[in-house]
């Protein structure tokens, strides 16, 4: 891996660029239950009809799609496995890691406001693959959100925060997936628990590309970026009905990097979920195109070095 890193720094050629995919998923829907994939009717989703990905997706499927891109390591994020047995997903991913050398870390599912959270966090903290956890907090629509928003399972819910307070002691970080208008709550969380790193998923979901929508996204992301214990994964920015739109996504990518700085951003594929709209190569080629004029060190940081640091990879 260090050889590819040195080779890229010498050549600057995208073909030599080593990539750590900081956000991808594996599913086996024949053997295991993922309610959002197995149940019918399908749920509302920001990309629309996602029936095309309601199938198993395993390491051999991922490898087949990587094309010319040099994926050297990946981080598997919990895939909304049956919430009754979240630890079983860790066992499943561990079984895949024994056969897939690029699979080197994962993020487990937890429900921070449940009674089993303390024991689950202790178990995850001892597991060699698990680096952090994800519990999508309760959110509301942009129109209904208020500055004093509190709901069961939200980032301001005292019971939810009791679970969150146990992360640092177990050596775990938190993966946050929430729309950008909830980032003020995340900023409070970052301040109140400075020993816990928050890794924001999917660029804080800038789905509304209107001038007003992008302005709100920028302002809230800048608010959160004031907290030093925050990182951002630039992923999940496909636009329904469009091949990966470099021009439409350029502003999102560049603004995100400008707001948080190169050192706190990492690219990721969100595959196979983003396969609803685009191929894996289209996603990675789009990111490469947008940052092609940046320095070799910056490109290496965005595609490789930052993810290795955030997820403590060896």
Topology (SSEs and partners):
Elements: H1 2-11, E1 18-24, H2 35-38, H3 59-65, E2 70-77, H4 86-97, E3 103-109, H5 117-126, E4 130-134, H6 158-164, E5 173-176, H7 183-192, E6 198-200, H8 211-225, E7 230-234, H9 246-260, E8 265-267, H10 280-290, H11 296-310
Parallel strand pairs: 1-2, 2-3, 3-4, 4-5, 5-6, 6-7, 7-8
Helix pairs in contact: 7-8, 8-9, 9-10
Overview of the structural elements:
This protein is of the alpha/beta class and 314 residues long. It has one domain (2-310): TIM Barrel (Alpha-Beta Barrel). The protein has eleven helices and eight strands. It has helices spanning 2-11, 35-38, 59-65, 86-97, 117-126, 158-164, 183-192, 211-225, 246-260, 280-290, 296-310, and strands at residues 18-24, 70-77, 103-109, 130-134, 173-176, 198-200, 230-234, 265-267. An eight-stranded parallel β-sheet has the order 1-2-3-4-5-6-7-8. The mean pLDDT is 97. InterPro entries: Amidohydro-rel, Metal_Hydrolase, Metallo-dep_Lactonases.
Give the tags.
single chain, 314 residues, alpha/beta, TIM Barrel, eight-stranded parallel β-sheet, 11 helices, globular, Thioesterase, hydrolase activity
């Amino acid at each position: 891996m260090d050889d590819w890193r040195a080779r890229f720094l010498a050549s600057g050629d995208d073909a030599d660029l080593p990539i750590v995919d900081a956000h991808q998923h594996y599913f086996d829907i024949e053997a295991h239950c993922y309610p959002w994939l197995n149940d019918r009717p399908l749920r509302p989703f920001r990309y629309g009809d996602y029936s095309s990905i309601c199938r198993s997706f395993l390491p051999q499927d991922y490898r087949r799609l990587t094309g010319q891109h040099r994926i050297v390591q990946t981080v598997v994020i919990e895939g909304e496995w049956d919430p009754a047995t979240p630890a079983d997903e860790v066992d499943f991913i561990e079984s895949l890691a024994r056969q897939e050398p690029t699979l080197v870390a994962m993020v487990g599912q937890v429900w921070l406001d449940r009674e089993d959270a303390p024991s689950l966090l202790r178990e995850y903290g001892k597991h060699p693959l698990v680096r952090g956890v994800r519990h999508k907090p309760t959110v509301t629509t942009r129109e209904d959100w208020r500055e004093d928003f509190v709901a069961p399972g939200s980032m301001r819910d005292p019971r939810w925060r009791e679970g969150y307070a146990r992360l640092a002691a177990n050596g775990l970080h938190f993966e946050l997936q929430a729309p950008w208008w909830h980032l003020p709550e995340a900023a409070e969380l970052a301040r109140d628990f400075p020993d816990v790193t928050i890794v924001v998923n999917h660029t804080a979901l800038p789905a509304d590309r209107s001038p007003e929508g992008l302005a709100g996204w920028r302002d809230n992301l800048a608010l959160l970026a004031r907290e030093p214990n925050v990182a951002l994964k630039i992923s999940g920015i496909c636009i329904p009905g469009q091949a990966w739109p470099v021009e439409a996504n350029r502003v999102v990518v560049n603004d995100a990097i400008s707001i948080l700085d190169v050192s706190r951003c990492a690219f990721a594929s969100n595959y196979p979920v983003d396969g609803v709209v685009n191929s894996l190569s289209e996603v990675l080629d789009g990111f490469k195109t947008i940052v092609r004029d940046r320095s070799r060190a910056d490109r290496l940081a965005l595609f490789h070095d930052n993810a290795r640091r955030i997820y403590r990879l060896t």
